[in-house]
Request: fold
Amino acid sequence: MSEEIKKNNEPPFKFKRNEYGLLTHVDYVFNEDGTVNWRKMVSPEYLSVNKDRFKGRDVPQSIDGLEDKDLIILLGGIKQLALIRGFTSVEHELKYVAYNHIGVTSTIQWIPNYETNNNIVTFQACASATLLNAPKMAPYLETIAENRGFVRAVRNFLRINIVSQEELGGEIKEEETSGENHRTLKGTPYESLDKLLSTNKITFDAFTNRMAQAEVEGASEWTKITDIPLDLVITCTEKVQARIAEKLAKKASK
Reply:
């Protein structure tokens, strides 16, 4: 007598949202202002120690007690948060392509919930992948840039201040030139920012002061362009471009 075959074609819970746009089967964590604390919604299994923060020191064996700046969030955690929050589309647009440099703009359309006054919100972020910030992934620069754009769009929209594993890359390489070490800018986002500042006659001090006013982390400590974390270069470039456009618009209106 053969055993009865049981079908497993029903989910363990109903995947639906309430009037606030929140999943009914998920236990949410909230901030004092009533918004969702998306940082607290990240499962510990998707967090890891950011070893780059402990150079010259013993690397902790556990994430217990570590601050957000000492952590890395894995791609699986970003995908989990995006699924819980809810979105209708993700689009990646190539902004510039070279043999050693891929830049993308990633756009996510989020579903309405009470945090957005029940309005659909579209959020956008930029990212890049180069042979310098992803040296071991040269054949997959498009994928790296795409993943970086996605995680950045999710992190920034959900107010997650933990860098993702995808955003970490190799350091700018030292090269020997005329017997002196220098950090090459050619073919990197640094080169674009450097040219933008030079063309518009913006001193580096004026630039760092502006970034500090815009509350860009660490801006007041930058002494040269390669001090800027690679994942912030495009963000800073966009802020400078926006400032320049604002000045030109005011001048044209006079």
